[in-house]
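User: Can you help me understand a structure? I only have the sequence.
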Amino acid sequence: MPEPTIGGATPADATTVVASDYFQSYSVVGLLAVVGVLFVAVAFGAGRLLRPVVPTPEKLLTYECGVDPVGEGWAHTQVRYYVYAFLYVIFAVDSIFLFPWATVFAAPGYGATTLVEMFIFLGFLAVGLLYAYKKGVLAWT
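Assistant: Let's start by predicting it. Here is the structure, written out as tokens:
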């Protein structure tokens, strides 16, 4: 009994073609990754070969903004600066989610669902902001 054909090709042939196309797209990504790694390796290797290596005690000193190092290498930093950075990240993530949400919200059939999801997301952010306010994080002293 002859094997059934789909458009003149057997199902096994069609599967082979689909698998070939699938893995061909990954081979392009893999090839680009290998080229990128080689590019970085060649750049670092060339830099290592071409740079002058003359270590002196002055070159081995810790350097910060043109000021000679004095005292210990550890400096005290207030924690509130990190908290401001975290708050910035929260609002940056918020904006990253708001722009795609606006485009999906405009699509037909997604309005009510995306509106509810976004208000839940904004509610979580509001609770975090309220918590930071109650802890006194937002008071600049």
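Now, to help you interpret it: The radius of gyration is 29 Å. Residues 11-50 form the longest helix (40 residues). Let me know which part you'd like to focus on.
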